[in-house]
Amino acid sequence: METAYTAARERAAWLDRSSRGRIVVSGADRRSYLQGLLTNDIDALTPGTGCYAAYLTAQGRMIADMWVYEVGDVILLVAHGDVNATLLARLDQFIFSEDVQLGDVTATFAAIAVVGPKASDAVSRVLTGASAAALEALPVHGNMRATFASTAAIVTRTTDVGEPGFDIYFAADEREAFVAALAAAGVAALDVDTAEVLRVEAGVPLFHRDMDEETIPLEAGLDSRAISFTKGCYVGQEVIIRVLHRGHGRVAKRLVQLAVDGRVVPERLAAIEAGDKIVGAVTSAVYSPRLNQPIALGYVQRDVAEPDTIVRINSSSAGGNDSAAISARVTQRIS
Question: In the prediction, which pLDDT does 274 show?
């Protein structure tokens, strides 16, 4: 793990993205159609740009989070694979007279992330038509076209791994050749466990781990990244606006990052306590090489969500009793 971690932090490393679903939205009305469904300003996208967004129920709970890329002739939606079928079915229900077509291209395209401070150099050595300078100039969620082995590829700028980098989408039957080209360029493989460490260190929430179908985006701190406050109506907007305007943005719980004392990594769903009360639960936890201690993400009641608040984590891996409770400190509210 140390080799992969060091590569991602200091050079470049690649991560398989096959667990993510990929949906293509085509047709002249694709942007206006998605504008009424997703939380971010899809109508404002122009070719080569993108955004992070959520799809909500009418009650403001999350169906999925996703990355939205306008690539010129279609929009590419990328979501976690375990919600892909649900997302596709729900989107299809809202097509009436619009000129919109949906296609599941998960099996058609492979997806590989390359992350780290040298990621642009690495990707430029593997792809044709994507110079390091052009890649560096891409804004977050920006995208560009390139080629690999004479076949079309799409490159998107990403940050959700925990280190800035790029996701590359290309023909599925070229995957082995692409991985071999990365290896020849000196790019190390990034395993899932190490990628999880990078994600938690960066405070990036993951759907079906730190968020689920009961989560309001504001609880997970997604408002600054996934929600437009200037666009028109979208599904679930009434709940979001009510919390922001009547509740002044105050939600009952908030996702926070915690620095944990000692060496024991808390279990997922371990209780977070303050005083004599349970005030939340851990959602993700890892051992951080950067900090040389365990860290975690978890939801806590809003009155203990401020940085530097001291709490306890009662982890069953440490014995599951009061005497085994681990001290922890809130380091940040996720935003």
Answer: 96
Return the pLDDT at 248. Answer: 67
Q: Residue 302 — left, alpha, or beta (φ > 0 → left; ψ -120 to 50 → alpha)?
A: alpha
**Distance between CA 138 and CA 143 in Å, rounded?**
7
Same fold, 2-199 and 252-335: no
Q: Are 294 and 266 in contact (CB under 8 A)?
A: yes
pLDDT digit string (tens) for 58-93?
999 999 999 999 999 999 999 999 999 999 999 999
Domain residue ranges in the chain: 2-199, 252-335
At the topology level of CATH, where does 2-199 sit? Answer: Gyrase A; domain 2 (3.30.1360)
Rounded Cα distance between 25 and 178, Å, is 26
pLDDT at position 319? 44
Which residue stretches of the chain have pLDDT < 50? Answer: 317-323
pLDDT tens for each residue of 225-249 = 999 999 989 999 999 999 988 766 6
d(CA 309, CA 303): 9
For the domain 252-335, what is the CATH superfamily, name and number? Aminomethyltransferase beta-barrel domains (2.40.30.110)
pTM, two decimal places: 0.94
